[in-house]
Design goal:
The complex is a heterotrimer of chains A (269), B (371) and C (510). With 371 residues, chain B is mainly alpha-helical. In chain B, 73% of the residues lie in helices and 4% in strands. In chain B, the strands form 2 sheets. A two-stranded antiparallel ribbon of chain B has the order 1-4. In chain B, α1 packs antiparallel against α10, α2 (31-48) packs across α11 and α5 (128-155) crosses α10. The longest helix of chain C is centred in the first third of the chain and has 26 residues, at 27-52. Chain C is 64% helix and 0% strand. The chains are: A alpha/beta (269), B mainly alpha (371), C mainly alpha (510).
Amino acid sequence: MTRIPSQPGPALLDVRGISISFGGLRAVQDFNLTLPGGRLHGLIGPNGAGKTTVFNLLTGVYAPDTGTIDLGGAPLDGLKPSARAAAGLARTFQNIRLFPDLSVLDNVRIACHLRTTGSMAGAMLRSASNLGQERAILERARELLAMFDLLDRQHEDSRGLPYGDQRRLEIARALATGPKALLLDEPAAGMNPQEKVELRGLIRSVMERFHVAILLIEHDMGVVMDICERITVLDYGRTIAEGTPAEVQRDPRVIAAYLGDPADPATGE
Amino acid sequence: MDGVAVGSLYALIALGYTMVYGILQFINFAHGDVFVLGAWVSFAAAGAVGLSVGDQTAVPAWLVWLLGAVSAGALAAALYEFVLRPRLGAGRPPATRLTWPLAGVSVVGWGTLLLLVATRGVVAGGSHTIAGGMILVLAMSTCGLVGFCLERLAYKPLRSAPRLNVLITAIGVSLLLQNLGQLEWMFGTRPDRMPTLVPDTVLFRIGHVPVRLVDVMVVATALVLMVLLDWLVFRTKMGRAMRAVSFSPTNAALMGVDVDKVISFTFVLGSVLAAAAGFLYGQKYPGLNQTAAAGWVLLGLKAFVAAVIGGIGNIRGAMLGGLLIGLLEFFAVQYVPEGASLRDIFVFGALILVLLVRPSGVLGKAVTEKV
Amino acid sequence: MTLPTPTARREAPNPLMERAAALRGSGGMAAVRGVAPVLVALAVGLLLHFAIAPQLPEFYPRVILDIGINVILAVSLTMVNGFTGQFSMGHAAFMAVGAYTAATLVYYGSARLMGTADFASARAHAGVLSTMLQGREAAFFTLGDGIFIVALLAGGIAAAVCGYLVGLPSLRLRGDYLAIVTLGFGEIVRVIIQSQTTDTLYDVEVIKATPWPKLMRYMGGPVGFTGLPSYTSLFWVWSLTVVTLVVAFRLKVSTFGRAFLSIREDEIAAEAMGVRTTTYKVRAFVIAAFFAGIAGGLYAHTIGIQLNAGELAFMKSFDIIIMVVLGGMGSISGAAIAAGILTVLPEALRRPPPVDLPWFLLVMAAAWVAALLLIRRPKWWLIAVTALGAAYAWWQQPTLASPLMFWTVAGSGVLILLFAGRRVPGLIGLAIAVTCYIGVRSAAERAGIKLSDYRMVLYALALILMMILRPQGFFGVRELWTAWRVQPLHPRRSRAEGGESGTAGRVPTA
């Protein structure tokens, strides 16, 4: 495997050698990632390459067979997804998973929950601190919605939103958890060209305003090549290339993975 | 031996629960009441053919009503299909969606009535065992009919509704069956005694356990039915369609399986088996409680537990689970102090234990959600 | 408020909570907000108990009392089934635990503390607050009342402990399997209670000589716990009902309530957003069980009730589930209203209240017009048919109260429910349904059918029809005051097929 010399700066998200297999299928093999704070890293690969599985491993939906994951120097291994979110790892989902019967505002407010410290008894008595907490949550949620142009839809059920809005709401919701690292799973899927252009700007501004590191799965190469500083390419669960967009595009193995290996008569053209 | 007999009855009922769950992923709480209906229809049929202890010799009024309504409907559909539609021109939609179910229901209904009359003859001839078999068929066909109607009227409109709604509907259907059965012109509110059709003799003993003729009959009938079902599900085209639908209704539909038909068939099958269990139960324990009695519900619940323990959705699992529950219960009664009053604890305790250790049951497969 | 926290997450600077500290309300107002619901609860209880109940015919206060208990049960179950979406089928078991705990404490506690032979007589020991017996001279608050309220709380706590134990398996199990375990738990509770000895002790000296753990066995077993003092009154029931409602509402609109709801909506997403789903599921069970336990204690001491675990088996659990689903998942007001209706309905079918036809006709007409205007696409043919029918009825007999007129309007109501049942706002649909019921009743009277024989059949039919015609319940997931908004059942989701869209195979280009 071609190891690219490691990035300058301390690693925020440090993934070493994680693997998982389902039955006989090696979904992800020996995946490594070093993501410094405030950087944008792309994760690409053909369908079924294991990209979303990597996300599920990072966020604790699956437990890896081998390997370790550190976030900001603290190990995440063995923690539940909620604990990882609390440690500063937030994600969006490839097939949108909003809370469909709740309002747009509530979707974001729920994500603020893990930063609250009050007690349930306080909520039942509606104590002063509980009230302050609710106000702060509301303020924060509205700020985020305003930033994502969703404020005028805040009282609508999230299931009724147009597709692009649902995608953006997912990002807003993920940001409301106050993450250090943000994992975006195909945020541009199903968006029209205009929305995709806006999304690029949005992702950039999120990085600047929230100082988060972003790991991005995306099929739209326009988006990936434009905004990612580094890219990892997966194929059949293995990392076949890592580097800057320019490097990755020149890599013969990447081209083979996407176009089919010219040496292979089954896929060659 | 009681354990095996009751266990095989549990297994018969559990099959209905498990088949419906396998296909629709919902717990059909009304299934236990179909079982009760089976027991009571057997009783009514026995009365109607002149076997009863009391004076119930007439054909029950509700049966005539049911048949009348159904045949009227069938007649209307047939008129439309064969008289009206040819005149209206080819552009008219065929009425088969209505005709065939109605015609089928009508045939079964009239067949039932004919069988009833034939059974009277057999009883008059003095052959009670054959009459018993005919009553069994009668109960099975009536309950199959009821199961079909229930599915079409109550559950089908809810095919795409949330599961909880279907569950509540099932509870509603269960209440409906219980309380319809309590009405004066149905079975009334008094317990009755089922006429027993085989003499109460001890055939032989295993150790010191007596094996009665009734037990042998119950187990044998249940076994035959279960083998038949197994053959039906694993060896026939319909069975393959059933398994396909239980795997994925959408995909099965795309492959040309008529999902509605399969679901109806499953309900009918489950109801038929439950009716058989009801008849056999009446032979084993002739004292029939009123249809809304709590004891019945508990019986149905235990059968459901059997289905879950075996692995819900799994047909062979249900058979195994039924036997396990039956044996567990009777071993508890035999060998545990105060076991008789605590046997339900064993049943439900076993349920919780199995679910905690192996949530998908003994023979079930674990299902995980894709993220 | 700084708490030492076990998890790593609160070590980091937390801008949200810093901001919260800046925004916190004043302590004085907080005290008011804390006390106000209690005052309201007491006021409602006192009002019902002293002002309203004495005015009503003999039978009504008891129905109102049953409504209160059922509201507590339905609202508490809403916190599990409606908020977190965990399906509990053993709610009556919590009620049974609360009922038997409270009953044992009240019965044997009274015997020990009072030491008189008539210790179990509410007539002798209840204060004015705790009796449904009218016109009785008594102290305002007595020892009996004190024992009662302590026993209620103890019952709630005992049930909450059970709720914790039942909540634990919910960490492992999902959906139907959890439902089955809760059902099994409910049955086990019932069997344990029923397998105890059939006796209750009644000799004060014997009771005093028997230690508490042994007394716990004398709960009547399968016969039922006989001779309990009937302390439950409208005051206690409705004060506690109001408290339950307030707690449920406050919880629902708080950050914790939203955490509950997120589990119902999408457990995986909730977990990914940092909601500790397992913790909150167990918490929901505990809170719900606590209130169910209190309701059980109230039920046990209701006049005319013979406490028997057989009555608190799964059929009772189903009754409560039906209330929750009819109300709409997670809708507190919906559950409360459904509880009220489902308590009244069987009684109303048993002994129909007198009905003033013209009055009902007006309500019906208003509901009808509102329904037709509010459904998204008005059914013009329905309007036309009804108008024609009404005109014909008027022409036949120029009065609003004619049977024909009534049938026209009721019939169109049925049609509205049939064709637009899912889209009619909850309350209006309800009004139409009630009028339909009145119509069926008067028809049955005319035909000489005793409707009370058919009450359970009708109840079952209504339930099935409701599920088919209006699967989302009265108010869907909303509350009463937002339910007027018509809910889109089939969302207008302009959703391209998700998943990995067909871009694979394209060469990465800059």
